[in-house]
Specification:
- By secondary structure, this protein is mainly alpha-helical.
- It has helices at about 15-45, 50-75, 75-95, 95-110, 115-125.
């Protein structure tokens, strides 16, 4: 990153990609429940105004945890700073191990939905 005096550092292409790729993956993953809710609403017999109200309530419900955590953090700055700092340190120290476990869990969940897994489990249960 290059900087000149008094300016913020400029972003590199690598840094932008390292932020953009996880953001896109998270956006795609969190988009599916929203699309499912819209699909369910579109198949319902509710009037248009009621569908809009239910969708607005759904959106509020989805952002409520983030808003609640933000309010708690702003109100109880000193009370939550130390525990949040300890959690942050723990996450940083265990990031590789946690990521490996998450990838292994995702792999297992993907594998458990395959026909090969079903065949192996059927073979094992027949013994």
């Amino acid at each position: 990153m290059s900087t000149t005096q008094g300016e913020a550092p400029s972003a590199t292409a690598r840094g932008l990609i390292m932020v953009a790729v996880p953001a896109v993956l998270l956006e795609v993953a969190t988009m599916f429940p929203y699309l499912a809710a819209i699909g369910t609403l579109s198949r319902s017999n509710l009037p248009w105004l009621s569908q809009a109200a239910v969708l607005a309530l759904y959106c509020l419900l989805m952002v409520a945890p983030a808003v609640l955590v933000t309010v708690v953090r702003l109100v109880a700055k000193d009370g939550v700073h130390r525990p949040l700092r300890r959690i942050d340190i723990w996450f940083r120290e265990n990031a590789r191990k946690n990521t490996a476990w998450l990838i292994a869990l995702a792999g297992f969940l993907l594998l458990s939905n395959t026909t090969a897994y079903g065949s192996v489990m059927a073979l094992l249960s027949s013994r």
